[in-house]
Known about the structure:
Layout: H1 6-16, H2 26-32, H3 37-48, H4 55-62, H5 67-85, E1 89-92, E2 103-106, E3 114-121, H6 125-141, E4 145-146, E5 148-154, H7 165-177, E6 188-194, E7 197-205, E8 212-213, E9 215-219, H8 228-240, H9 244-247, E10 251-257, H10 264-272, E11 275-281, E12 288-294, E13 317-325, E14 337-345, E15 363-370, E16 373-379, E17 386-387
Parallel strand pairs: 3-10, 5-9, 10-13, 14-15
Antiparallel strand pairs: 1-2, 2-3, 4-8, 5-7, 6-7, 11-12, 13-14, 14-17, 15-16
Amino acid sequence: MKVFAESWVTNLEKKYHRASKYTTPFIAKLAIDPILSKERTKIEEWLQTLPKDVKPDILGRLRSKSSHQHFSAYYELVLREFFKSMGYSVTIRPKLKEGEPDLLVTGKNLAKPIIIEVATVFDDPEWEREERKLDLILEQLDKIEHYFFVMVAVESEPIPERVDYESLQQFVTQWLDSFDPKIIHESQETGYQSDGLKLKVTMIPRKIPKRKPIVGSYRLPARFMNSIQVRRVLEKKINKYKSLKKLELPFIIALSLASASLDEEAIIEELFGKEQTIIKSKPGEEVIETESGRDFSGLLTPKPGLGGKTRNTRLSAVLEVKSKWSPLKEANREAERKHFLRVMHNPFSSTPLDHRVFKDYPQLVPVAEDDKGISLQWIGENTEVAFS
Length: 388
């Protein structure tokens, strides 16, 4: 049983060899692109070490054209291999009363087994639909070959479901034909508007005039993504395994932002509340005191204050996983994906996680406690240890 079986890859090549890079699913790129052969070999090796009863499910999800399915299975393998590389024993799909969490970690210096659930977070579904619609537009425009690049910027929200691609292609082709590549050396701009679709198209001369597919860059309307997806995923995972509290087992949610462009502070705010500054003054006095802290909106924050009821104490920590492709070098034309881990401990957990488990990685830990709250601080914040 192989992920990248020859017959399966051959079928993908037949189906997608003429397809645009904009609409080819990630799994097809992973299976076909020669630059990614090292990553394919690694995944294949990981699959072969799985128990027979879980192989079919992981195989099917890895091969899925849905990025949600592919990446959720992929990060199960990544975390399994990560803990194995540190000398722990790892069981995939242990059985609990409520179902089967992803991993059970035992051995080494652990007093109790650790339950790990992988949570892969994607962008807002509405935004993903807009990206797919833009990909279809780019696919049609990239069929045009010309002496210029174009940058395509979407100005309509939302992009209409039906687009007259023939009309759009004709408009852009005629516009580009109006410029002489031997004379024009500066970018030019125009707008396209039809049936609810509004685009800004910028022509950029090539350094060496040669007829090639035209799409050089593109963008959707700017927006500020909120962290509601992260919160929903965390809440769902926390509430799923309620028996962990009675079992008194540490529980980690491994959070991977597969395509969501959230910064770390957004995750911290969802866990521990938003930063705030409280201004205080005493009657009759001009002295004003300021006090910094976080509000009580976080998933792990007692409400109100430490005198209130603690919440989500089943969760021991959130493990943030970020993946990056290593830059290609001339001597080695194979890309490699590296994974960077950071741990955010729950100071209110009924089963706190031993810091030594992740001693070589950055960790957000409680360092002080008083009647106003718990102070958190990063240890090893600038550590750049990568797992590959």
